[in-house]
Amino acid sequence: MLPSTWKGVWDAGYNKVLYPYANNDLTARTHDGYLKAAREALRKSNGGKEVAVDGIKGLSSLLQIFNYPTQIIYDFMHLVCLGHIPSLINRWCTRIDKNTILKIDNKLQQLRIPHNMKVVFLESIKMAWQWKAKNSRLFVLHVGLLHAPQTKEEILLAERLLDFYCRTASNVHNSSIEIFSLHAHLHLAYQVRQHGGLAHMSAFAFQSAIRYIKKKARGCIRLASQIAYWVDMRRVTQSNKFSLPKECLMNVSRNKTDLKKYIVTIKLIHNRLFCP
To answer: Which domain of life is it from (predicted)?
Structure first.
């Protein structure tokens, strides 16, 4: 769902929906607007075929959890690394000769990369659409000057550069580049201001941890329930480290004061063991 009221236009020539920059009215959508469109779609459907209003087909329980669109973020991995960059590189390759492509391939293969990154460019740049996300990320962020914007002024500069890029992309290539994945770049700077750096909210972290999650499920039935069950089991059986207070080593006599101290100590140990 778009975070703005900008509507796409079907282009029969390219057989895709385009979002021409010239049509952008810069009007942001609101949570109330989403709810209104969802209720209108529900009313028009009237129990029959689903009808979409402004791209929304009806009410969702997620509308009660998230604030649309400010809390619905774009994933840097899929939007940029797996979406726009391979498409853009393919366009570049149609404009350069074979010798230039060969030089680029050789430079990529000769890169000396830290061992913990584990990124190897096996395919030619002409096959960028077959690259994994980590290859595209390395190509975008690390092949060349590396700089991480931190100040508001730098984020504003990046926003202006992205705006210029989206505004002029169709002049460099053609209007077929103005698809949703290009338009979405206009919202990245606002997203960084709201939620922090793109690296902290991308799917890369999940992709790295998914192999551990997959070990908790077998087959293809009720995967979420299986994962939740084994996570609960681990939390129940995992022991917490604790240190015994010195008082637990004392000799207990029939003295009432000593018995009270003993009872308090036993309760303390019980709480640390079974009530984390």
So the answer is: Eukaryota
